[in-house]
Amino acid sequence: MDRKEFLHTVQTFIEQNHLFTKNDKILVGVSGGVDSITLVQTLYELEYEVAIAHCNFMLRGDESDGDQNFVMKYAHSRSIPIHVCSFDTRAVAQERKISIEMAARELRYEWFETICTLNNYTKIAIAHNQNDSIETFFINLLRSAGIKGLTGIPKTNGKVVRPLLAVSRQEIEDFALQSSLSYRVDSSNLANDYLRNKIRNIILPELQAISPNCLQAVSTSMSHMQEAHALYSSTISEKRNFCCSQTNNGFVIDESKLLAQEHASTLLYEFLYPYGFNPTVIAQIFDSIGTQAGKTFEADEYVALHDRNCLFVERKQTKGQDTIWIHNCDTYQLQNGMLHFTSIPHSEFVLDKNRSVACVDYEKLSFPLQLRVWRQGDSFVPFGMNGRKKVSDFLTDEKVPLLQKQHVLVLESAGEIVWVVGFRISHLYAVTDKTKQVGKFSLT
After folding, report:
1. pTM surpassing 0.90?
2. 3-class DSSP string for 261-287
3. Which domains are assigned to the chain?
4. Residues 178-228 pLDDT 10s
5. Which helix (H) or strand (E) holds 302?
6. Which of 204, 257, 401, 407 is the most interior residue, by most CB within 10 Å?
7. pLDDT of 305-336, one tens digit each?
8. How many CB atoms lie within 10 A of CB 64?
């Protein structure tokens, strides 16, 4: 493929997939390697309005600084606007408890979004090519990532676009050679420390030795897989709507509806995999349906729990609600909202049946009040009853899911529970004809 054909191939790919037009302002992520230099050069020659964003992740010492200087020189030689930022990637990875590779990715895209907002860039162009997409195919194949994982790298993702997916790495290198383009070589790409590098440097060359046309064959298969996935996704969406319902902090799967479906285990996989549950854990969850009520399964950010023939999936709470001491009428910040406390004369009292509102006899309160997560052994006298009831039993009777139950708060006065927050007040603090002042608590 010569230069002219290369430019035509990329231009056709951009137009056929509606990646962007000449009216867009395009921010190009440029590391200095052959892929990204070829990308920005191609868009520059095709007369798109481009700017460069370069990230210095400070991972390779002088080599990283050399990349930065090279990209800046390239940009200035063509009068292309450039944005540069340095990151202490190792420190961020440690702080966020993620891999260095993941930290670099998060930092890069977070910064790109910021630049776009400040400079009105409408698209972010990334230099992933056909080889990258095929490598991703094999990585996902080894990770049992399902049908979506076998579609390769998407052409678009929001404002992110990938114009070079139509060309191979060899075609990119040929274009750079024919164009006399200089570029940097990342030494880390040569080491087989990462799975992607092993596939790139070992597996794919062996496949090409067996079948010289293997890259095009895999690429064609991924195109077919993308079309199949579109049809597949439509069915999964319908089944998800039938079997699942949203909650405030996640969703719940009706296990009886799930089990009534054909290929129930595959449906469960598709429901849970996007939330970080790996295939092994998903298989364990499916096998435990109907046999292990109360058992929990964890992903990085979500937890799944069997309860009352349902599977509850919720985002993990970072920590429990700290104890809050309430000294007077005011507004108090909670972990997931606000608590408003006011006092009104009994003559202005109007019964509010909303569970997020509690009205009690103000004069029976002993300050400071304590707002805390309920504990085993807690009991109170539910409104409408004369006898005491354990909070745990009360929540069970209310059919509160286990995942939600552990975060329920109680409002306490001098060791006596006034309100199981969001559910019921204590009969001992109910407003009566003898009440002079009403204390009103409301959640927002």
Report:
1. no
2. CCCHHHHHHHHHHHHCCCHHHHHHHHH
3. 3-221 (3.40.50.620), 248-315 (no CATH), 324-443 (3.50.40.10)
4. 999 999 987 766 677 778 899 999 999 999 999 999 988 999 999 999 999
5. strand 302-307
6. 204
7. 988 889 999 887 655 556 899 999 999 988 77
8. 19
